[in-house]
Amino acid sequence: MQTNAKTNLIFDHDGGVDDLLSLMLILSMPNINLLGVTITPADCYADDAVTSTLKILALYGKKDIPVSVGNQYGPNAFPGDFRAQPRACHAMPAMVRIKENRAQLLDIPAHEWIISTLKSTNAPVALLLTGPASNLTKALSDEIDIKSSISKVIWMGGAVGVRGNVAMHDHDGSAEWNAYWDPDATNQLIKFELPLILLPLDASNALPVSWPFLEKLAETNTPITDLAGQFWATTVTAIPSYEYTYFMWDILATSLLSLPEEHFGLTVGHLQSSTVTPNAGQIWQVKEGQGHPASWVDSVNADAVIDYIITTLANGNVNMS
User: Per the domain annotation, does 105 fall within a domain?
Assistant: First the structure.
């Protein structure tokens, strides 16, 4: 997965703590040319996600990268406790001191910006989705010709061979939240038969935000790893009414952009998904001819990923003054 040429990237996220950490990791990667950031108002409140996104871009000196908020809304809202949690990130002293550039925020919906960018590009573009797939699938539904400009799509979503993490009264627990928020978008993403790599719970379950990880991160003792550690510190308490462990869902998906592929176990096969209760958003493997081709990560070298994340963040070029 490593190359001398830079990868042109659109990053689509939904404003959670791990989404913001993923943006920090992307901006610390020397092989990524970030074209823009789009936001899905799913596991966040959009205003908080915009503020934190703009501040992180400013932290890395990237005040010219466009940011656009989507107007697509899934039928299965994230719990309010989940959505409110990331507000703490831009309330931290280091973030409060950063002056964001509001001129970077565009007044067109995310899917329209994705269409415009992919139609005008002369080079292939990768997309990293760490929230629901709604912005991309809306763009493809409106302008299918943009598919030819997409080099690959990495999506943090789904639970292929393991139990999901949705705990709702009308659901059987088989789905992962990004897939459940907008089951139709999940189904479309698979049916579009893109060069798609899923990072499902099958892999991310190996990377909880554990105390040994936080200790190792703290030992690095750089301004950016300290800020990252403060972000992760907001996740260590249980969200009310849920038995809840925070995992490195999004930042693991992000590491696929640069970490050598030998550290991941990749399965190539065919997938299908459900759009209706009681298993809306469930994704499962099927035989060829019964679903759609895709790849998904089902195992990971957790130690290699942790070392990569810490080292890359520590080497990020930021101005904390």
Answer: yes
pTM over 0.90: yes
Give the total number of structural domains in the chain: 1
d(CA 283, CA 274): 7
Dihedral sign computed on CA atoms, order 19, 24, 28, 30:
positive
- The crossing angle, in degrees rounded to 10, of helices 110-120 and 134-142 is 60
Q: Break the chain down into helix, strand, coil percent, rounded to 5.
A: 40, 20, 40
Distance CA 2, CA 256 (A): 10
pLDDT for res 260: 93
Domain membership of residue 1 (yes or no) is no
Kindly report the length of the chain.
321
SS3 143: coil
DSSP state, residue 78 = P
**Residue 2 belongs to some domain of the structure:** no
DSSP state of 302: H
Q: Give a yes or no: residue 283 inside a domain.
A: yes
φ, ψ of residue 240 to 5 degrees: the values are: -50, 140
Residue 42: give the domain boundaries.
7-314
The HSE-up count of residue 187 (CA atoms within 13 Å, CB side) is 13
| 232-242: pLDDT as tens digits | 999 987 555 44
User: 197: domain CATH number?
Assistant: 3.90.245.10
